[in-house]
Specification:
The protein is an alpha+beta fold. The chain is built from three helices and 17 strands.
């Protein structure tokens, strides 16, 4: 009986692994992800899931995430990885350090982008609906993940960098739990964060849309958008909590 149970458990594990590999292989735009928001929300585990050096870094790769221990945010610009450590009071970026670990990560490789002018000023909810509409028009499945970018001005912009330190207070789940907002912020139970308010900032958002396939895995549970801000000089960056997009900005969606 024990042997039969062990065999069944082994076959189940093999089946789940095969299903996971098949899912990964079927994702568009060489979509790559590490860690799981929902799992972290439930367990509070912030241990590294992969070496940052092992992440895809070919030209054309764009991504967002956070490092082990929720000590820093990460963004990827055309293959270049940048880390915003919570120890910096201005959200400035640096190259990854040797042996640095990724806790959460999502990236995709894009060979060509469709450029879509933003026709009017849009608050976050309206803009996210606009992204979904434009993605559907271009044949992208809203069930599958894909990357997106926004270049231009942001009349409203609030972003943060996690510090890895014990948070001053506990409210709704945060970056790893990072779920429900508190006073417009993504609250954080696992780590403190430094928050930056920059209305009128110019630069770009780099983000991933989770689709139904990866909601709660590469985005906060209950959300399908996960975006980071970076300025035009690639000098500061962090996770976006709230924003508005100005008329004349450009939405970029992947073509291939």
């Amino acid at each position: 009986m024990n042997a039969l149970k062990h065999r069944s458990t082994t076959l189940l594990a093999i089946g789940l692994l095969a299903a996971g590999i098949a899912l990964a292989a079927s994702l568009p735009f060489a979509f790559h992800h590490v860690g799981n928001f929902k799992r972290m929300s439930h367990t509070g585990d912030t241990a590294g899931q992969a070496a940052v050096s092992s992440l895809p870094q070919a030209a054309g790769t764009w991504g967002v995430g956070a490092t082990a221990g929720l000590k820093a945010e990460m963004i990827q610009i055309d293959g270049r990885l940048l880390v915003s450590p919570g120890s910096d009071d201005r959200g400035r970026v640096r190259p990854p350090e040797a042996n640095e670990q990724a806790l959460l990560w999502a990236s995709a490789r894009v060979a060509a982008w469709a450029e879509v002018p933003v026709p009017r000023d849009m608050e976050q909810a309206a803009f996210e609906a606009f992204v979904q509409e434009q993605a559907r028009v271009r044949g992208l499945s809203l069930d599958q993940p894909f990357p997106f970018r926004v270049t231009g001005a942001f009349p409203r912009l609030r972003w943060h960098v996690v510090t890895g330190e014990k948070p001053a207070g506990r409210s709704s789940p945060g970056h790893g739990a990072h779920g429900a907002a508190h006073a417009g912020h993504h609250a954080n139970q696992q780590a403190g964060m430094k928050v930056f308010h920059e209305p009128g900032a110019v630069g770009q958002l780099v983000g991933v849309y989770s689709g139904t396939a990866l909601e709660g895995v590469v985005s906060h549970p209950g959300e399908r958008f996960h975006a980071h801000y970076v300025d035009d000089q690639l000098s500061v960056s962090g996770h976006v909590d709230a924003y508005a997009v100005a008329q004349g900005a450009v939405l970029l969606l992947p073509l291939r």
